[in-house]
Design a protein that fits this description.
The protein has about 375 residues and is an alpha+beta fold. It has a five-stranded antiparallel beta sheet with strand order 1-2-3-5-4, sandwiched between helices. A two-stranded antiparallel sheet has the order 6-9. α5 packs across α9 and α6 packs across α8. About 40% of the residues are buried.
Length: about 375
């Protein structure tokens, strides 16, 4: 049970303190469910694994199921995601939790891809200091980011070849299920990218997707321009593929945002990058983000998981499942790497703000995979990859 802090206790804890948030959440839930439900919040914690763009609480809630004491309390476990504090250098300029809730509803209704059930969405900042989304908690294992799953000594690195094959097949099948949602099958106008520094330009979904990310790059590097990201986006603009059919795109399609049980997908998490885009945007992000960790591992002289999520394997599985051709992923993988470069630049600036890093003379040194981006621009990166 969360003890409600009282001013007489002399507590000056920030509103981001998990126990304070849990207490405030209990007060909010009492108002939403009514006093007869008598909700009690307990087991408040924060996850120690992946994710950095919004704050997350894990907690349990027990209630009187019919408002009558003595009938046996019902316990549910929830995940509460809050918008980040805007004065703490958030990764993205805005967070639309209502959009995320709508996307998960669309996926739950129209596809077989498993998503957490959204229990509540609170658009006001009053209860917890920021808008928040409440989802039912799903059990499962996540490939860790810290330390990366490619470093070894985790459930994924210990998997057998058959288990890795099952995980890859389930992952690609989940993406294919999400992509079953087309512009014609569901009104996804709510996924229209919102301007950052000017109107979004482009006749096609890919052009508009690209323009939003280029605006994000310019927004994120306004104080100290990034030569390598500027060059990368210029190259991408000059070599952009022709139009492709737009479908629902998960956006942050990496295995670190999936829950697995028995090496099969149990839940798809983190929908803040959802959009309408060609399927190759998700496939490029999936394959590149594995390479991001694999490159890091190989640079340290460790083997990692070089046979997992290779370009040819992912394309082959996806085409076998959907019956649709997949365009050459090289452009989309570079697009993923450059977009990830903008995110990492922003993450680096957060580290400086919080005293975890020093401001470098060269702002591109904030990008952890700078050498990868340089090799891509030089045309020397791709030869090191497995087919």
């Amino acid at each position: 049970m969360v003890e409600i802090p009282d001013a007489s206790d002399g507590l000056t804890t920030s509103s981001r303190d998990p126990l304070v948030l849990g207490a405030r959440f209990q007060n909010w839930l009492s108002a939403v469910l009514g006093d007869a439900a008598n909700p009690v919040v307990s087991d408040v914690s924060t996850p120690s694994g992946n994710g950095m763009s919004s704050e997350t609480l894990l907690l349990s809630v027990s209630t009187e199921p019919d408002g009558t004491e003595g009938t046996g309390r019902m316990v549910r476990r929830y995940v509460v995601r809050l918008e980040p504090e805007q004065d703490k250098c958030p990764v993205f300029p805005r967070y639309d939790l209502a959009m995320q809730a709508r996307v998960m509803d669309v996926v739950a209704r129209l596809t077989d891809a498993p998503v957490p059930t959204v229990a509540f969405h609170e658009p006001s900042s009053s209860p917890l200091g920021a808008p928040f989304l409440v989802m039912e908690r799903v059990d499962g294992l996540v490939p860790p980011d810290i330390l990366p799953y490619t470093f070894g000594d985790c459930w994924l690195s210990d998997a057998t070849e058959d288990q890795l094959d099952r995980l890859e097949q389930s992952t690609v099948a989940t993406l294919a299920a999400i992509h079953a949602v087309t512009i014609d099958s569901e009104d996804v106008n709510f996924l229209t990218p919102q301007p950052l520094i000017g109107p979004i330009q482009g006749e096609t979904a890919l052009e508009r997707h690209f323009d939003w990310w280029d605006q994000y790059r310019r927004w994120a590097t306004a104080d100290r321009p990034s030569p390598i990201l500027t060059a990368g986006f210029e190259w991408l603009a000059d070599h952009r593929p022709h139009n492709h059919e737009a479908r629902l795109s998960w956006g942050d399609s990496r295995i670190g945002n999936l829950l697995y049980v028995d090496h099969q997908v149990r839940a798809v998490l983190d929908w803040e990058m959802a959009s309408a885009a060609p399927v190759e945007v998700d496939l490029g992000w999936l394959t590149y983000m594995h390479r991001f960790f694999q490159d890091m591992t190989e640079d340290m002289g460790m083997p990692g998981l070089p046979g997992l999520l290779t370009t040819s394997s992912v394309i082959g599985r996806y085409q076998a499942i959907t019956g649709r051709p997949v365009d050459d992923l090289r452009w989309y993988q570079m697009y993923a790497a450059m977009r990830h470069g903008v995110i990492m630049r922003r993450v680096g600036e957060r580290a400086v703000l919080h005293g975890q890093a020093q401001t470098p003379d060269d702002p591109d040194d904030l990008i952890i995979h700078r050498s990868t981006l340089e090799a891509m621009l030089a045309g020397t990166y791709w030869d090191r990859l497995p087919a």
